[in-house]
Amino acid sequence: MKTVILAGGLGTRISEESHLRPKTMIEIGGRPVLWHIMKLYSHYGFNDFIVCLGYKGYVIKEYFANYVLHNADLTVDLAKGAIEYHATKSEPWRVTLVDTGADTMTGGRLKRVAQYLNPDEPFFLTYSDGVADLDVRALADFHKKHGLEATVTAVSPPGRFGALEIAEGKVERFIEKPPGDNGLINGGFFVLEPSVVDRIAGDETIWEQEPLTGLAHDGQLMAFRHDGFWAPMDTLRDKNVLEAMWASGQAPWRR
Length: 255
Prior knowledge:
Elements: E1 2-7, H1 15-18, E2 27-28, E3 31-32, H2 33-43, E4 48-53, H3 57-65, H4 67-70, E5 73-77, E6 82-86, E7 94-99, H5 106-112, E8 123-127, E9 130-132, H6 136-146, E10 150-155, E11 163-167, E12 170-175, E13 185-192, H7 210-217, E14 221-225, E15 230-232, H8 236-248
């Protein structure tokens, strides 16, 4: 199965860093968040990626074009103009990088890469600004078992504030940043049949609107509940929290 990653957004809510590079290239522990997401899929044996580029897409192209160079020891023979690589630390990834337009919406980006998909096989679709300890193999198996067109991963958003448990005016317990209000949200990890592309009109189509709501209306959207770790990287605060987790050696999504 292939994995399509939407990596074309501006990242306006984290503009402190995204004005220099795509949001997906903002680093956690010295590695772009895009790398962290790809490591998750690779851990479960999914190594074929299609990355939808947009804003400053050349930065992502340059990163992967020079990936082996930056992750290996090497000898440069200046006289011969040759480079000899030693102890390379590359990943077993095949990465297709597609310029899907600077202003194309999320659905339009998916439609633009349809030619690179296997027409007889479901595929993963995910955003490039969140991490999780999700078992994507179990997600794929769940999708194949129910036989519908689409699966979305449902998660509980992390809490941002501590909560008080109060009985008869007395505080009985303080809960440090509990999960959200027990509501579930779109966690951004999908498994889709190729037929969903037919629901996308063009570049102006937002995936989360007509295509996704249409799938739900037609009874073709199943939810895979993930009760483990999930966190977005929408703001500088989010980035700093994830960075601290990684530095502590206790990042739940680490593979």
